[in-house]
Structures are given as C-alpha cells and as structure tokens.
Protein 1
Amino acid sequence: MRILLNVIWLVFGGLWLALGYVVAGVICCVLIITIPFGIASFRIAAYALWPFGSTVVSKPGTRPGALIGNIIWLIFAGIWLALGHIVTACVQAITIIGIPLAVANLKMVPISLVPLGKEIVPVDQQGLYPPAPRY
C-alpha cells in the first residue's frame, strides 16, 4: 500500500514539492555558511519524493546552533515551503483519493519550518530513537 501511495504522491504533487526543496538547497549551497541549510533541504527533498513509510524524529541532545539556524531558515525559506505544502494539501483534499496525500502534506509542514535537529527515518526504525523532548 505504501508503494501505491508513494507513486500517487509522486505524480500528484511530490515531484513539484521536491523540486522546490532542491531549488532551496542549491540556493543555500551557494554560500559556505548556509551549506547546512542546503543539506537539510536536500534531505527533505528526498522525503518529499517518497514520504509514505518514513517519519521525522528529533535528534537527541540540545543543539543551540540548530535553534539559531532554524530561526534563520524559518525567515528565509521555511515559510514559503510550508505555504507550498498547505496550498498543495488544500488542492489534494478536494478528492477522496487525495485526502491521504493532503494529510501527508500537512505532516511535512513542521519539518519544512524547522528542519535542523530533525532526522528522517523509516517507520520501522522509529522506536530506536528516543522521544523528542517537550518544551
């Protein structure tokens, strides 16, 4: 079932969203200081291509650099990518078949807003990571 949903996802929005992340990653890799943002963007692009069967978990430990980086990312790229997910989810939710795709799109909004300090893992390995701290 995951493969079928991933193929439908790829055709009806995943490719365009992944291209958005790739463009953001290329722009971020132009300057040396923003390369971590580019790497995070490329990871999310792979997740945006094939999301079913994967999930996002927080990396263990405190990361003050990730907090500062996430604020910078939010201002320059996160808002626009999150809006792309929300708009695509609204369009996909019009049909019954598109509802799971819309839910997956909305599930990607948090990682598009704050990608640093997160890791994308297969659902089968989700229990191997400690739970994210609640603040």
Protein 2
Amino acid sequence: MRIAIVRRECSLKKAGAERYCVNLFRQLQKLGHDVTIVGEAIDDDLRNEVAFLNVPVNHMTSWTKNETFAVNAATVVRNEKFDVVHGLSRVDGLDTYRLTDPLQTHWVNVYYRQPWNRWLQTWNPRHRAIFAIEKRLFGTPK
C-alpha cells in the first residue's frame, strides 16, 4: 500500500509528534508499505530511509505558516497517487487524522480563562487561521 504521512516536521531530534512520525513510518515500512513523508522538514539522516515531499511554507507570520502548510500540503498530496493519506498535522484532504497538536478550539477555551480574553483571542490571526483549518479538517465527509 502506498501511504503518505503528513507532518510539518519528521525528526528524532524532538519528542512528541515529530518522533512519532519517524516511528510510524518505520513500522509501516517493516509491514511492507511504501511510505512517503509530506512535510516542511525532515532530519538529514532520515532522508535515505523514506521518501520525502517538501511542502513550501510562507514564514512571514505565524498564521501564514499554518495556513500555507495546510493548503500546500493538500496540493502536494493531490499531485501524487496514495492509497491512504494519514495526517499528524492539521491539513486539508486527509483520509485519516491523529490529533497530535492540541485542538485549538478547545485549547483557547482552557488557556484563556477570562471570558473577555477568550473573546479577544478569537480575533488573533493565528488562532483564526487554525480555527478555519480545524473546521475544514473536521467538517469534511471523509
């Protein structure tokens, strides 16, 4: 099976989802699957282990980083033929998704406890971009 794993960064130098990405692709390869990482960065020493498709990202602001990664990763995936597209990052066009980053809509409610501050954060461009990405991700019939 040809499987794409979408994660902004695939790395053994970090903990969490970046390391999980490495462990997942290695285990899928052991099972005989053809795995491709779709992301912005991968450790140099991992490039000879797995196919990697680079996603261009606009680093001008935090919200443009999030939005351009989501949109551009979906474009990169659409231009290939995968049996399954598994996401470890918030991206459009996934077949399956594992929530590895905090759900932003919930996180804002927990982190900003004061109602006025929570309301104010709904106007933060970064939060708005992630809210929109999450709405697209969880609102699809897939």
